[in-house]
Design brief:
Helix content is about 60%, strand content about 0%. A hairpin with a 5-residue loop joins strand 3 and strand 4. It starts with 7 loop residues before the first helix and ends in a 5-residue tail after the last helix. It has one domain: Up-down Bundle (A middle domain of Talin 1).
Length: about 400
C-alpha cells in the first residue's frame, strides 16, 4: 500500500477547506448538541497574519531606507541620493498595500493618529523647506522658532497650522529627497548639494535638512513598529481582541476594504485629481507628486485590496503568507458571486495597470486618452467595491 505524505501547510489548507465547504458537524455524545467548526475564525486569523506581515515588511524596508539615508548625508553624492530614493520607493511598496486595512477604526485609524503621521497628503512644501519662490521658508530654515530638529519636534508640529501643514511621514521624506515637482513629465529634481554641509550648495541649512530627513525616517520607523506590535501574534494586543470575535472582525475589515476601494482610492486619490479645474490643480492633487510614483500607489493600492479578499500576501523576501480568506467564505455560500468578485478584481487590476506614468501627465486637459484610462480605472474600482458590498450582504455582514 502506497502512503502519501503531505506538507503541513497543505494539511492545514485541506482542513480549512473542509471546514469552509462542508461545514461538517459532529455531536456531543452526552447532550446530542451539534458542534460546528467556525470557518470565520480561520479567516480572521489569516487576515491578521497578512496585516502583521505587511506592517513588518514596511518596518524592515523603512530601516533599510534609514541605512541608505545615513550613508547619503554622511557623504552626499548624486549616487547616494539615487540609492536613497530607490530605498524610499522600496519602502513604499509594502506600506501602500497596507492601506486596505483602514477605515474600520483599527490601529491605523484609532485616536493615536498614526495614519496622519505616516501618510498625510497633500503636503504644503513651504511648511518644511524652501520652495522656488521663497528660499527661507519652512521649519528647516527657521532656526529661531525651531532651534532643535528631532523627531519629537517634527511630530508635535504635524498639521498644527492646517491640514496641509504636514511635517512628517512618507510624503515629507519624499519631498526631502526629490524636492518640488515642477515638471509635467518628470519628478522633482532636488540637487544632492542641498545636503553638503558647509559647501556651496544650492540651499542653506544643509545640516538642518539632513537632521530633518533622518529624524523623519526615525519617526516613520517608530510608528510602523507600533503597528507591527499591534498585530503581532501571540501577544496581548489589538490582534488578540480582534480574532476573539471573528464575525465582527470580518465585518470590520470587509467594511474597510469596501470603503477604501469605493471612496479613498477611487475618489480621493484619483477622481479629485482628474476633476480639478486646471492642470496645476490636478498635479497638486496627485498623491506622490514629488517622485511621480502616483501610478504605482494606485497599482499597489489595488494589490492590497486583492490581498485582503484572497487572503494572500507576497512578502519582500519572496515568501508567501496565505490561508483561509473572504473568497473561501463567499465561495462556500455562493460560488457564482465569488466568481463575479474575482472577475471584478481582475478587471480593476487590468484598468489600474493601464494607466500611463506619470499620473499627472495622464490627467492633463490635453491628454484625452489618458483621462479616459484614469476614468476607466475609477469605474472599475467602483464596480469592484459594489461586489464587496454584495459579498458582505451574502455573508450577513453589516457594511457601513
Amino acid at each position: 500500500m502506497k502512503i502519501q505524505f503531505f506538507p503541513m501547510k497543505k494539511i492545514y489548507l485541506l482542513a480549512v477547506t473542509a471546514a469552509l465547504l462542508t461545514q461538517i458537524s459532529c455531536k456531543d455524545r452526552n447532550n446530542d448538541t451539534a458542534i460546528v467548526p467556525n470557518p470565520q475564525a480561520f479567516v480572521a486569523e489569516n487576515y491578521s497574519n497578512v496585516v502583521f506581515a505587511t506592517y513588518e515588511d514596511s518596518w524592515i524596508a523603512a530601516n533599510k531606507l534609514k541605512t541608505a539615508a545615513e550613508s547619503f548625508v554622511a557623504n552626499p553624492s548624486q549616487g547616494g541620493l539615487e540609492n536613497t530614493r530607490a530605498a524610499y520607493l522600496a519602502a513604499r511598496t509594502p506600506y501602500i498595500q497596507s492601506e486596505a486595512f483602514r477605515f474600520y477604526n483599527g490601529p491605523i485609524d484609532d485616536a493615536r493618529g498614526l495614519e496622519g503621521l505616516l501618510n498625510s497628503w497633500p503636503l504644503d512644501e513651504s511648511y518644511i523647506d524652501y520652495i522656488v519662490t521663497n528660499a527661507n521658508t519652512g521649519i528647516i530654515n527657521d532656526a529661531t522658532a525651531f532651534p532643535t530638529i528631532n523627531k519629537d519636534i517634527i511630530e508635535a508640529n504635524n498639521q498644527t497650522a492646517g491640514e496641509e501643514s504636514v511635517s512628517c511621514g512618507y510624503h515629507a521624506i519624499e519631498f526631502l529627497l526629490w524636492g518640488q515637482d515642477l515638471s509635467v513629465d518628470g519628478p522633482g529634481d532636488r540637487p544632492y548639494t542641498d545636503y553638503i554641509v558647509g559647501g556651496s550648495g544650492t540651499a542653506s541649512n544643509q545640516d538642518r535638512r539632513a537632521a530633518y530627513l533622518l529624524a523623519c525616517i526615525d519617526l516613520l520607523i517608530d510608528n510602523l513598529n507600533t503597528l507591527k506590535n499591534d498585530w503581532k501574534p501571540n501577544a496581548q494586543n489589538y490582534r488578540a481582541s480582534f480574532v476573539a470575535n471573528p464575525n465582527q472582525a470580518i465585518s470590520n475589515f470587509l467594511t474597510g476594504v469596501y470603503r477604501y476601494t469605493d471612496g479613498e482610492l477611487s475618489v480621493e486619490r484619483m477622481q479629485v485629481a482628474l476633476d480639478a479645474e486646471d492642470d496645476a490643480g490636478r498635479q497638486e492633487n496627485e498623491q506622490s507628486c514629488f517622485s511621480d510614483q502616483t501610478h504605482n500607489d494606485i497599482i499597489l493600492g489595488q494589490k492590497g485590496i486583492r490581498n485582503v479578499y484572497i487572503g494572500t500576501y507576497v512578502r519582500i523576501d519572496g515568501s508567501v503568507v496565505e490561508g483561509a480568506s473572504l473568497s473561501d467564505l463567499v465561495k462556500a455560500t455562493d460560488k457564482n458571486l465569488n466568481d463575479l468578485v474575482l472577475s471584478k478584481i481582475y478587471d480593476a487590476d487590468i484598468a489600474v495597470n493601464a494607466i500611463h506614468p506619470p499620473f499627472d501627465n495622464e490627467i492633463v486637459s490635453t491628454n484625452a486618452a489618458g483621462r479616459i484610462r484614469v476614468q476607466n480605472a475609477i469605474n472599475a474600482l467602483h464596480d469592484e467595491a459594489a461586489e464587496y458590498k454584495a459579498a458582505g450582504a451574502k455573508l450577513g455582514m453589516i457594511i457601513n
